[in-house]
Amino acid sequence: MGLQATFHVQRESGFTIDVSLDIRDTGITALYGPSGSGKTTILRLLAGLDAGSPADTIDINMDGETWSRGKYRHPIHARGAGFVFQRQQLLPHLNVAGNLMYAIRRRKTDNDLTLEQVIEWMDLRALLPKPVAELSGGESQRVAIARVLLNGPRCILMDEPLGSVDVAARSRILPYLARLHRVLGVPMVYVSHSIEEITYLADYVYLLDAGRVTAEGSVFELSTLIEPDIAHSESAASVIDCEVGATSDDYGLSTLTFAGGEISVATGALTPGRRVRVRIPARDVSIATTQPTNTSILNILQATVAEIENTQTPSQLVRLAIGPQYLLARITRKSRDRLGLTVGQDVYVQIKSVALLTEFLDQDRNDPPGTSATTPDV
Q1: Whole-structure pTM over 0.70, yes or no?
Q2: How wide is the angle at C-alpha 171 spanned by C-alphas 266 and 190, nearest 5°?
C-alpha cells in the first residue's frame, strides 16, 4: 500500500506547503527542488518531527495505519520511520560496532535483516573497531545508514544524506543506496537538490517549488521533458532503462539495448540480460542532418525532432524521439538555426558519453553492492 500523505501547512512567515504524495512501497521516490521549496519540511512532517499547527491539514497513512488526521498525531517512536540526516547522528562514545549493536537493541519492528547482511551491504567490516571520531564523512554516513536499517524501519526518509560529503565519497556511497532500494520492501523518500543523485537513484520524482508540486512522474519521463526546471540544469540528462546484450571481447565494449535502439559502452564484464540504467548528459548529445561518417563516435542513432525550446538564450534544448524513447540535446541557438531544425524532422544524434549505473535488479539479497562507471565517448 505504501505511504500516502496530504499536507496543507501554513507558516507564520507566509510560506505554505500544499502537497499530496503517494509513495510506493518499492523503489525510491525523490523530492527534488531548489532550496526553500519545502523538501525537508515534508520529510519532517512525514516522520512526525514537525507536527504543524492545529489549523494545518496533515493526513498521513502508512500501509493502512493512520499516522496523522485532524488533530491526531501518531507518536514519533511508534511510526517506525528511519530518518537519515545530512550530518551523521552517531553516538561518539561508541565505536562502529557499538553503534550498530545499539541500533539492534532499539529495533522498532520485526524484520529479517541481520547484522551480517547490513555489514556486507554497506561494506563496514573493516570499520567495526574504529572510533566514530576516526571516520571520514563518507564512512560516517554509511554507518548512519546501516544504523537506520538495523532499527527495522517501516519506511526510510533521507534528507540530503550526501550533502556534507565530498564528491569522491558521494560516488562511493551512491551504489550502496541504489542497492538498498532493490532489496528492501519499504517506502523510501530521498530529498536532494542534486540532479545527478536524483537521476542515479530515483524511480519516481516529485518536482517541488515554493511548497507546490510542479511536476511528477518516473525519472525516465521527467528527465526527457523540456518544460520542468529539471531540464534546465547544466547537469540535465536523459535516463534510459536498458538491457545488457552482447559483449565484444576484442574491444571491451558492451551493447545495451533499449526500446528504439542500442548503444555501446566501454565497461567491465556485464551479464547479458541484466537490466541497467544509463544517464546521457544533454550537453553530450549532438545533432546532424546527414549521417556522420569518419567519426570516432560510435553511438550514432536515427531520431526525429519532437520538440524545440523556443527561447532567445544562447543554448537551446531539443527533444528527440528514438522510437518510443526520448533524448535531450543541448545545442546552441546558432546551431539550431544553421541546421534549420523543425519538429518532425528526421536527424542523426551523436552520443559523446554515457554514464552507466548498475542497478542490481536481479541479484540475491546477500550479494554485495557494486559500482557505477562513467564511460567516455565510444
Answers
A1: yes
A2: 120
